[in-house]
Design goal:
It is a single chain. The chain is of the alpha/beta class and 525 residues long. The chain folds into two domains: 247 residues, Rossmann fold; 246 residues, no CATH class. It has 20 helices and 22 strands. The protein has a nine-stranded mixed sheet, with helices on both faces. Helix 16 runs parallel beside helix 20. The longest helix has 18 residues. The chain is globular. The two termini are 38 Å apart.
Length: 525
């Protein structure tokens, strides 16, 4: 058996029996089907397939089941189940398809992130696995398994796979979705809200792809909080939506219509129309370049070379961030400066520690000189579980690359900036964030600059929010009551604009559902 730490590092998550049963039921419909699991682990899927075939009347299921596994310590149970001849201990990605293809592939491939895959293995997979060259190099390991597994199917065969949410949300997965759309007549994906894997924050989908050898004519998306039963309500997904943003299919079409209407009626525009979103300062070694106030004083570094910097979205706890709320400082040494002895000594200590050999420092003309030291107008979290919003930056603070900087266009006056800031705390804006951003383990939103550019905000010039409303929203945010702030802003929009309560409630209800889905709270279908 593989211990828990090794499983996690290799992206191996054991399939719960009830999920294995669902996969087998979706993939096996006749007693004479041949079935392959290309990475069987401890055999949950093959065991479920065996039971499924017996239920359908198959007398000797073991003769129709095949499996590959790279880890020999897990094999004994599977050998007992399907026999030694049908078990191969080998990396599936190094295996060529047999002459006689199979009816069904069922799989729970390893969820290894691309940055944890050795570069030489990526090169080997891309060169040796047919179809893999179309995948971006940022693809996680499961994508290679999926593309390769399809080659083992006969015409009209089916593939059922347990895959991470990134199938629907990651940028690299667009290539996977395009691959599937070109090869399977019917594609269905069940989004599962509950975390089903022990010791992991990874949440999954179940891909059910049928009719291998034909281009997709039907693509559907469904939702289930736990292991799916008969309660799934399927929603049709257009080809364009499947390729570009299938997650949006979780939102009913009538919500899209109302959302579009309110965006236009309330003069909401993409954030990119009024501001530029940029990543914060990339130091290459925060432990060297960022110092706490007491540490800098002990080292005798000049105050003139130290700039206050925000190092975490946890600092963004109010609508305005002041310098007295920050105790971290970035060492900013100008290229032309004749550095004093205390700074020279500190630079030497960095060289002794090898900081100058790290990726970003060694690319600079002077490894210790960071030139990106322009303060943004505001901040936006990069990763957060909470309700994200823009925090204004009147004191000229910097931020690391864990916090985005927001630079408003020169034409945006202070009143409009505040309106934009408050409008982000509406269900309209928050729903746009939920739809555009990625979701990571534990329900964390990852807001890339490209995602942030598409957040809808209200930038209507000459219509500033009342001062009392600004104070009220600011107090709610500072008290940690962000959802209450969203409710209050929705109420204000409804009473001050030509929109109905029913319209705003529809958007808020959809936002609440998307947020609960991300956080793995139960969502009604």
């Amino acid at each position: 058996m593989i211990d828990q730490n090794e499983r996690k590092s290799n992206g191996i998550y054991l399939t719960p029996p009830e999920l294995a049963q669902f996969v087998a039921t979706c993939g096996i419909h006749q007693a004479d089907q041949t079935v392959l699991d290309p990475c069987f682990g401890e055999g949950a899927l093959l065991s479920a397939a065996y039971s499924r075939l017996r239920t359908l009347g198959c007398v000797q299921p073991s003769q129709q089941l095949y499996g590959y596994e790279i880890e020999p310590s897990t094999v004994d149970h599977v050998v007992d189940l399907i026999g030694q001849d049908n078990v191969v201990i080998r990396d599936f990605l190094d295996v060529s398809p047999p002459d006689e293809r199979l009816d069904t592939v069922i799989m729970n491939p390893p969820f290894v992130r691309h940055h944890a895959i050795p570069r030489d293995r990526i090169d080997r997979m891309r060169n040796g696995t047919a179809g893999a060259s179309t995948l971006p190099r940022t693809s996680d390991l499961w994508a290679y398994f999926l593309v390769h597994a399809a080659r083992f199917l006969r015409q009209e065969g089916s593939l059922v796979a347990i895959l991470p949410w990134s199938l629907l949300r990651a940028d690299y997965a667009k290539s996977v979705r395009e691959f599937l759309m070109g090869r399977f007549r019917t594609i269905r994906v069940v989004v599962i809200g509950q975390m089903l894997f022990d010791g992991a924050e990874e949440r999954v989908t179940v891909l059910i792809a049928e009719g291998f050898g034909s281009r997709a004519s039907t693509i559907c998306l469904g939702y289930s909080f736990g292991v799916p039963g008969s309660e799934i309500q399927w929603r049709a997904v257009s080809d364009d939506l499947w390729l570009e943003s299938p997650w949006k299919a979780m939102v009913p079409s009538e919500v899209h219509d109302v959302f579009s209407f309110l965006v236009e009626r309330l003069a909401f525009v993409p954030l990119k129309d009024v501001a530029t979103i940029r990543i914060g300062v990339v130091t290459g070694d925060n432990g060297f370049f960022i110092l706490e106030g007491e540490q800098s004083r002990t080292l005798g570094l000049p105050d003139s070379l130290l700039k206050p910097i925000v190092t975490s979205s946890r600092c963004l706890a109010s609508l305005i961030l002041r310098q007295d709320g920050v105790d971290d400082f970035l060492l900013c040494i100008p290229d032309s400066l004749d550095i004093p002895q205390t700074v020279s000594d500190y630079v030497c200590s960095g060289e002794k520690a090898g900081v100058h050999l790290k990726y970003h420092p060694k690319r600079r003309p002077k490894w210790y000189c960071i030139n990106q030291c322009t303060a943004p107008d505001g901040f936006l979290p990069y990763m957060t579980k909470e309700v994200p919003y823009i925090v204004s930056n009147p004191d000229g603070l910097l931020s690391t690359n864990t916090v985005h900087g927001v630079d408003f266009n020169d034409t945006i006056d202070d009143s409009t900036k505040r309106r934009i800031q408050l409008s982000m705390l509406t269900s309209i804006s928050q729903l746009s964030i939920e739809l555009a951003s990625r979701t990571y383990g534990g329900g964390v939103l990852k807001i890339e600059p490209s995602s942030a550019a598409g957040i809808f905000v209200s930038a209507e010039v000459g219509r500033s929010a009342p001062a009392h409303l600004e104070r009220e929203i600011g107090a709610l945010v500072s008290a940690g009551r962000r959802l209450d702030a969203v409710t209050r802003m929705d109420d204000w929009l409804t009473t001050s604009s030509r929109v109905t309560r029913a319209q705003m409630d529809l958007i808020r209800d959809c936002y609440d559902k998307m947020r609960r889905l991300r956080l793995s709270n139960r969502v009604e279908a």
